[in-house]
Design brief:
With about 500 residues, this protein is α/β, with parallel strands linked by helices. Helices cover about 50% and strands about 10% of the residues. The strands form five sheets. It has a five-stranded parallel beta sheet, with helices on both faces. Strands 2-1-12 form a three-stranded mixed beta sheet, covered by helices on one side.
């Protein structure tokens, strides 16, 4: 089986139906890598929910549900298409909010000026009828005169301004202060984001915002014009980036990013290349994406009283048990010799990430309600998958078996030799005697051939008492890529790509 197909099928833990159908539709329409589309839709669902919900973790305290989704994809892999398709409903919502905000801020400005003038006039009248001394305000009988209470100042209107591009620390504080403190930083050019001052010089701001801790602009790079204090900020990320650029961005401070916990907070995955596999023609007609965006608009139109007092999602008993089992599995995996001994910073947070994802799935599907066991399992599946990706990308790199390395050399040589004689097969003995594997030919050639047979690239058969190696049609159009070394735990969730409609 081709490595690209083999690994792509591992990309799909079970999703809520409405979310799953939208991912399938956009995957078929854009033909972007599946992991890119999946991350984009998870980021949008999380952003819509994060303003109204907090989750009570069965393994820890209450926390927000915002998430940092980062997908690595090569140049030309339609990162922008995936992000734009997923965020279209939030973009339209932001447009409506800006129109409402413009009128509301003008009205607020007028009311504030009237209030200030009225307050000034009231105080002048008050001071004219009393006298001040060093200890306060007193009347003629030396009795303390208390200042009458001021009328309430007009309340500042708050509106959403969710979608943001690359931000400086100063711009981040200003946007969070002027609007509902809930944003999604999105970009298909992740190198610009990861090299920005927000990541390079002020990572502590991001760490605090991920945890929902209050932040103040005293941490900003430049001296602020005014003091700003943001309570309960919600900040999510949706970033597409090329793998080389991602690692180059943190070349000088990878250890800082890991030890500081920023990488551990990111839900990072690597998208499999789709170039060379995309087809022409319109996608199958479906309204799945439209239904998803309708649901996002419904969530963002939730009663804004929840902005000041978010709904606290708890877990049903069986759902809590699934989270607790996952917590103990990952805890034990951090012991010496365990699969996560080298990445404790990510393994320590994965149970909380499972809780956040489960809460997002639950609110997205059913609104305010306790997390069901089904959505708890979905949260665990995704947290486990992202942890596996983190281990593969940042953990110790295992050595590939020699048979995989030899298979990469052997297949191009077999196709070249078969092409020279205008055939699709060559003699097995020729592989042993003249093949690219020089030392211990039979001991190494047979395992390599077995690997190519297992991947559907070649077949080995006897014809008239002579053994031949024959290239399959699949082997002619694809190159062998050695399969990744995967730990036995955690197992990757089952694939669902078979259900995705293909293009005509």
């Amino acid at each position: 089986m081709n490595h690209r197909v083999w690994r792509d099928e591992r990309f799909a833990p079970p999703l809520p139906p409405l979310l799953w159908n939208a991912v399938c539709a956009t995957y078929a329409e854009t033909q972007a890598p599946y992991a890119s589309v999946l991350s984009a839709y998870l980021g949008v669902a999380t952003t819509a929910v994060q303003s109204f919900v907090r989750v009570k973790c069965p393994t820890g305290p209450t926390c927000p549900v915002n998430g940092w989704f980062v997908f690595m994809a090569g140049s030309g892999e339609r990162k922008s298409s995936a992000i734009n398709a997923a965020t279209s409903s939030i973009k339209e919502f932001d447009r409506k909010e800006r129109r409402l905000a413009e009128a509301a801020h003008q009205e607020y400005s007028v009311k504030t000026k009237i209030w200030e003038k009225s307050e000034k006039r009231r105080l002048e009248e008050f001071y004219s009828s009393t006298r001040e001394d060093s200890e306060g305000i007193e009347d003629e009988n030396n009795e303390e005169v208390k200042r009458p209470p001021s009328p309430p100042k007009p309340e500042k209107p708050l509106f959403f301004n969710l979608l943001q591009e690359n931000l400086t620390p100063e711009a981040l504080y200003e946007i969070l202060d002027r609007n509902v403190p809930s944003i999604l930083i999105r970009s298909a050019e992740g190198g610009l984001v990861f090299r920005s001052p927000l990541f390079k010089k002020n990572p502590q701001i991001l760490a605090s915002a991920w945890s929902g801790e209050d932040i103040g602009n005293s941490r900003a790079t430049r001296k602020p014009k005014k003091d700003i204090y943001i309570e309960d900020p919600k900040l999510s990320l949706l970033i597409g980036v090329q793998k080389e650029i991602f690692f180059d961005s943190f070349r000088n401070n990878v250890s800082l990013m890991q030890n500081g916990g920023l990488l551990a907070r990111m839900l990072i995955c690597e998208s499999e290349a789709k170039r060379g596999y995309r087809t022409a023609g319109p996608p199958p007609p479906t309204d799945a994406a439209e239904k998803f965006h309708e649901r996002i608009s419904q969530i963002l139109s939730t009663d804004r009283a929840l902005l000041k007092n978010p709904y606290e999602i708890e877990f049903e008993p069986w759902a809590a048990s699934a989270i607790q089992r996952y917590y103990w599995d990952t805890e034990q995996g951090q012991l010496p010799g365990g699969p996560f001994f080298e990445i404790p910073e990510a393994a320590s947070r994965t149970a909380e990430i499972a809780c956040r994802l489960a809460a997002v799935f639950q609110f997205f599907e059913h609104g305010p309600s306790p997390v069901s066991s089904k959505n708890a399992e979905r949260g665990v599946d995704f947290a486990k998958w992202y942890l596996t990706e983190h281990l593969r990308l940042f953990g110790p790199q295992p050595t590939a078996p020699q048979a995989w390395k030899d298979a990469e050399l052997l297949l191009p040589w077999i196709k070249e030799q078969a092409g020279k004689i205008s055939s699709d097969r060559i003699l097995y003995n020729r592989v042993l005697n003249a093949g690219p594997i020089k030392s211990r030919r039979k001991l190494r050639a047979d395992p390599a051939l077995n690997e190519l047979v297992a991947c559907g690239m070649v077949t080995v058969s006897m014809d008239n008492k002579t053994w031949y190696v024959q290239v399959t049609p699949h082997g002619w159009v694809n190159d062998y890529v050695s399969r990744p070394m995967m730990e036995t735990w955690p197992t990757s969730p089952p694939g669902q790509l078979e259900a995705i409609p293909s293009r005509v």
